[in-house]
Structure formats: C-alpha cells, structure tokens
Amino acid sequence: MIRVAILEDEQLARDSLVQMVSKYPDLKLVGAFASSREFLKHVSKIDVAFIDIKLPSESGVNIARRLKKVGIVFVTAYEEYAAQAFEIGAIDYLVKPVREERFQLCVERILQAYSRPLLKLPVREGRNVLMLDFKGIFYIEAFGKRCVAATEEGEYEVYHWNLAELERRLPDNFLRVHKSYICNIDKVRKLIRFPTLQIEMENGRVIPVSKTYQRTVKSFLFQ
Fold first, then answer.
1. What is the DSSP letter of 68?
2. Following DSSP, what letter does each residue of 12-46 receive, concatenated?
3. For 158, which DSSP code?
4. Beta-carbon neighbour count of residue 47 at 10 Å?
5. Out of 6, 13, 48, 202, which could bridge 32 as a Cys pair, Cβ 3.0 to 4.6 Å?
6. If one looks up domain 2-113 in CATH, what number appears?
7. C-alpha 62, offset from chain centre
8. What is the pLDDT of residue 205?
9. Is 121-221 in CATH node 2.40.50.1020?
C-alpha cells in the first residue's frame, strides 16, 4: 500500500482529493493538510505527496525540492508550471478542477512508479537529475535516509529512493548483501571468506556480507 498525503490550502479542492484518494485501495491517506508546517511533520510517514503549487506561505515547488524521499504529484490551477514541475522529477501534474478519469490516470502512474523495475537510476548532479546506467554502478550504500551510488566516475546521491525501495526495483544482478549495501554482482572481483564473509568490488572497495544475506550471496555467486 502506498502512503499519501495532501497539501492543499483550498478546502474544496482538498476535500475533493481526499474523496478521490479514498476510492483506491492501493492508496492509504496519511493526512490532508492546509499548511506546509503541519504537512512537513508527517513527511517521514509518506511515499507520495499531492502538493498545490500556489500556497500562501511558500511555493509548493520549493517544498517539493526538500522532499528527497517522497514522490510528488503537483495539483494547481495553472498549467504554466508544468515544465518546472517535471524538472524536479514529479510523477504527475494535475490541473484543477481534477476530473475523475484524469485522477485515475495519475493513480496508474503512481502505481507504475512504485512497482516497475527502474530502467536507469536517478541521481543528483547539482540542481539537476542525472540518469545513470546500471552497468556502471558498483554498489549503492545507505547513509541514514540517504543513498549513494558508487560508479566508475565517482559517487552520486540517489534521487528519491531509499535502499528498501531500490531493492524491489533494481535489476536482478543487484543483490542486497547488508542492511546498508546493495551490490552489483557483475562488478564483484573476489569473495573473501575469512575472517568474515566479505566481497571485494572491481573498484577495490571491500563490503561486508551480513549473516542474514550470506546464504543468498553464496548461492547467487556460485549458481
């Protein structure tokens, strides 16, 4: 189930979104908020946010830029903000008043975004989003809520996804080996068996394999 929240200062528009969200069993409404302050208190509990671009206190786009782990659907009466919305990786852009059939398409896009395998990995490059080919990635490491992809060119912060979400959506050659690491098995140079199980990547980095994943790693490498 995908957890969603709504940030919309207009009550009629907010109530309409609440009603539409409630019709989809794959969506769980965490809350509907009129103020960004209350909304931001619940960010850690949600996967997707419906955000009005024109808010009294702050631009919805500015708020969305701060939500590194949340998928964004913009809701606005102004079509001219669409390009700006998609520049920051929004899932969708709804123009008010939102029609039922258009909202259904939005839900389909949300479900696709959270279920289909990723074709490339979105990472941050300054204020832009760079799409990395998986073949160039050695491993992905979690630092708290942040994830960093180590590549042949350097390290990049992963855009939007945490490690658990990535584990579900990465190609089959990416394997969880530790609570903080997912490795590209095609980039493994050596399996170190003593004193503890570790894998050495082609870039020289040695990564621990926790007991939870040891059997899976061995069977994958020796299949």
1. T
2. HHHHHHHHHHTT-TTEEEEEEESSHHHHHTTGGG-
3. B
4. 19
5. 6
6. 3.40.50.2300
7. 18
8. 97
9. yes
